[in-house]
């Protein structure tokens, strides 16, 4: 039987979901670079032939650790679904002579390299500059037009994003973003392979989106993501996922599969994603390409990742399209040539729709909740105002324990301050958006109030 070394780290699809599907295709040896979520450890012990938990490596030698463990277990493939381990796993696979993302994987991780590759191909994206110091940020700002967005080059989940309105805001934004990256590293949300990655940033102009020109219904955000895979160097789009509007500065609130787009609009989006992925020269990996949608058909690339979308994107695709991305990708790495979709799937191909909502202590208009609340999954499932026929659940693996204090939303920390993830199934994409919009309004009314701690500004 074939053997797979599964490298677990923070981020990506739910670990339990992915692990079960990989284990259905191969014997699995688990290398856990971060703590397994509550409830997954026991399942991992049952599913895996071996588990090495909380493994650490000397700084800069993570590739050596992965390579050595793969050789110990005789792995035929090395897989990860975590943004933070993608580059290390790609390099380890190269050393081992196994299929992987390839030598250019860092181009789909480091936003500076990614943007430079797209610039060489003339692809549409916001004007940007790479920065590593406050002085470089000030020089870059002099060449760009305000307002600006400061991003950590190796971040994920909108961590350390800062909107800069005037030159006087530059120094404070720089200090805050660097502090957030340091805090995220302590929580395990940081690049695992590149020392000092938290010091690398880009600053870019903010382009104006226009969701109304792309979607017939209300409540949609002005950007989408194209989910796909690169198999032996060939990009295969799977589907397009939609979003609700972000929470300032650009923290994702919800993802919806599929996006309710017309066929011509989806075709144009998918073609831009294809050009973006092709420009990075990847070999074998999942892909997640985010695209900003503007007025009159304009589009700008935001970023591409050499892995599948995080949160509940992968389970949502399986639910509505019947495609097991984690299992098929395992087959791909093992040389079994799975049958990837011949084209990007559309709402007409879907069996209903599904979406995931990140619970943040923020109202629809971006204002913070007036009071502190306690997370209670049973109350949310029982009392949330969803449409008849919709089914709501809470993703325990991605949520705080019941009774936990819902964190105060920190714009710089992004998704690091979420309380939970809710999953909803409905008959069509617009119903998912409508239900989530109603839930955002209802959550501060239905969740229990904490009476022991006042709200912090």
Automatic annotation (TrEMBL):
Domain of life: Bacteria
Entry keywords, A to Z: ATP-binding, Ligase, Nucleotide-binding
Keyword field contains Ribosomal protein: no
Coiled coil (residue ranges): none
Entries under PROSITE patterns matching the protein: ATP_GRASP
E.C. numbers: 6.3.2.49
Signal sequence, renumbered to the chain: none
Pfam families per record: ATP-grasp_4 (PF13535), ATPgrasp_N (PF18130)
Biological source species: Streptomyces cyanogenus
Domain ATP-grasp: 115-334
Gene name tied to this protein: bacD1
GO molecular function: L-amino-acid alpha-ligase activity
SUPFAM superfamilies in alphabetical order: Glutathione synthetase ATP-binding domain-like (SSF56059)
Name assigned to this protein: Alanine-anticapsin ligase BacD
């Amino acid at each position: 039987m074939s053997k797979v070394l599964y490298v677990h780290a923070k981020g990506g699809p739910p670990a339990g979901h992915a692990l079960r599907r990989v284990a259905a295709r191969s014997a699995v040896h688990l290398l856990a670079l971060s703590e397994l979520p509550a409830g997954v450890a026991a399942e991992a012990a049952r599913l895996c032939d071996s588990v090495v938990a909380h493994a650490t490596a000397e700084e800069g030698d993570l590739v050596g650790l992965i390579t050595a463990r793969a050789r110990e277990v005789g792995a035929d493939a090395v897989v990860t679904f975590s943004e933070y381990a993608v580059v290390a796993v790609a390099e380890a696979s190269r050393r081992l002579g196994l299929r992987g993302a390839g030598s250019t994987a860092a181009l789909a991780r480091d936003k500076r390299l990614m943007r430079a590759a797209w610039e060489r191909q003339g692809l549409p994206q916001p004007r940007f500059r790479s920065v590593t110091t406050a002085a470089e940020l000030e020089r870059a700002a002099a060449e760009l037009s305000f307002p600006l967005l400061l991003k950590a080059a190796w971040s994920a989940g909108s961590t350390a994003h800062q909107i800069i309105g005037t030159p006087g805001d530059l120094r404070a934004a720089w200090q805050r973003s660097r502090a957030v990256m340091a805090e995220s590293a302590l929580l395990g949300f940081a690049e695992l392979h590149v020392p000092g990655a938290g010091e690398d940033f880009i600053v870019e102009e903010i382009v104006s989106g226009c969701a109304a020109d792309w979607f017939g219904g209300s409540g949609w955000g002005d950007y989408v993501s194209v989910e796909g895979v690169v198999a032996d160097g060939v990009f295969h789009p799977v589907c397009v996922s939609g979003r609700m509007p972000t929470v300032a500065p650009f923290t994702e609130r919800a993802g919806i599969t599929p996006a309710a787009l017309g066929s011509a609009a989806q075709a144009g989006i998918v073609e831009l994603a294809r050009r973006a992925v092709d420009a990075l020269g990847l070999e074998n990996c999942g892909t997640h390409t985010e695209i900003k949608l503007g007025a009159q058909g304009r589009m700008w690339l935001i970023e591409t990742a050499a892995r599948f979308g995080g949160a509940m994107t992968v389970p949502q695709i399986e639910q509505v399209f019947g495609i097991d991305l984690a299992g098929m990708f395992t087959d791909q790495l093992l040389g079994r040539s799975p049958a990837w979709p011949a084209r990007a799937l559309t709402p007409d191909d879907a069996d209903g729709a599904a979406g995931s909502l990140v619970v943040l202590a923020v109202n629809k208009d971006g204002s913070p909740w007036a009071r502190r609340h306690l997370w209670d999954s049973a109350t949310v499932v029982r009392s949330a105002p969803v449409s008849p026929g919709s089914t709501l659940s809470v993703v325990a693996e991605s949520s705080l324990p019941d009774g936990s204090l819902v964190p105060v939303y920190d714009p710089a920390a992004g998704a690091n301050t979420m309380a939970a993830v809710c999953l909803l199934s409905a008959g069509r994409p617009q119903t998912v958006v409508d239900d989530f919009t109603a839930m955002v309004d209802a959550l501060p009314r239905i969740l229990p109030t904490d009476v022991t701690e006042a709200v912090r500004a």
